[in-house]
Amino acid sequence: MDHPIKRDHSRFRKIVKGKIRENLRKYVSSGQSIIPKGNDSFKVPMPSIDIPRFKFGDKSQGGTGQGQGGEGDPVEGKPDPNGEPGQGDAGEGEGNKELEVDMKIDELASILGEELELPNIEPKGKKQIQSTVDKYTSIGIVGPDSLKHLKRTYKEALKRQISMGSYDPNSPAVIPIRRDFRYRSSDTKIEMENAAVVIYMMDVSGSMGDEQKEIVRTESFWINLWLKHQYKDIDIRYIIHDATAKEVDETTFFRTRESGGTLISSAYNLCKQIIHEDYNSNDWNIYPFHFSDGDNWSADDTKYCLRLLDEEIIPVSNMFCYGQVESRYGSGQFYKDLVAKYTATNEKLVLSKIKNKDAILDSIKDFLGKGK
Question: Which of 45, 48, 50 shows the shortest CA–CA distance to 26?
């Protein structure tokens, strides 16, 4: 039988997951900070969970402390020695009570998957990555106190006392000694996982403001969360572009803002180069994502982009995802060009319009809802 504390902890985790699922759209649309802690875990802020407690009944029913006088009458007693009333107005409404809970990547990803009804991805690549997995499936005679197996420890102590004739059924005290202690022990296994790479491209030209980049940051966080749940040890590459493109680290990707024009083909050329040099499509599951406000330098460059997609990028990718972030300065023309060419003919190209932060979850479902 489970220990009552374990049952309470399990019940609390279910309540927490329910609260996070209820507020998932709020987490995403408000950009609420979910902080990575390392080891595939995150710190998630959430409203405090009220603990059940007794409530007092209606004062009109009488009881201790009830006497003469009405609501609002002054309380008779010793006056304030300063003779001055208190300063300031009374507060209104509840205080901002929040707590933080630790969640594993699989727990957060399962909440996202359930809410958006996302199918599991069927990998296409043959590349296998070795990963070590520790599973506590055996019992050892040494280990830390945190892994002590109480049931097996007391069983060993009971066996020893019976064999030595010191066990008294009328006074069944079982007292373990050092040699009785047993501990959970892990077996390290090598598992083979499919390999995947995600290549993020973002337009950082002058028409992409801070709000647009925040949308991209939030959406890519949740996309990464789901893909890491589906694949182990995936590679993530970042490309920024205006009229030229360059590969950067994650921090630079989300903080850079340029003021030049836009040449989308510069990003697609660099994406093609990264795939060609580092990721054989026969071995890797490849996921390019491009976020832009839809402006491009010229119609000729758009034609070149479509050729790059046709001949170089889409054929080697699981899917190519284009997210158009609405901007007051962007024309949105590139989305229209992609719709005109691909919508009815290529299932590997996925398009999504992201009007504002409230549309992020729907966009994630657009991208990941096919299970590719």
Answer: 45
What tokens does 227 get?
A: 């893909």
pTM, rounded to two decimals: 0.65
Q: Convert the pLDDT of each residue in 224-269 to its tens digit.
A: 888 888 887 789 999 999 989 999 998 888 777 666 788 999 999 9
Instruction: Specify the residue for token string 């996982």.
Output: 193
By residue count, the chain amounts to 372
Residues 292 and 362 sit within 8 Å (Cβ to Cβ): no
What is d(CA 68, CA 61) in angstroms, rounded to the nearest whole number?
A: 14
Q: Which residue has the tokens 């409404």?
A: 93
Query: In this model, does residue 95 exceed pLDDT 50?
Result: no
Alpha helices by DSSP H, 98-148: 105-116
Q: Mention every residue, 6+ apart, whose C-beta is less than 8 A from residue 342.
A: 309, 349, 351
3-state secondary structure of 254: helix
Instruction: Answer for the pair 287, 350: CB distance below 8 angstroms, yes or no.
Output: no
Cα 13 to Cα 8, 43, 276, 290: the distances in Å are 9, 14, 45, 36
Reply yes or no on whether the pLDDT at 317 is more than 70.
yes
Domains and CATH numbers, the chain: 4-49+99-116 (no CATH), 129-191 (no CATH), 195-368 (3.40.50.410)
Pairing of strands 235-241, 245-248: antiparallel
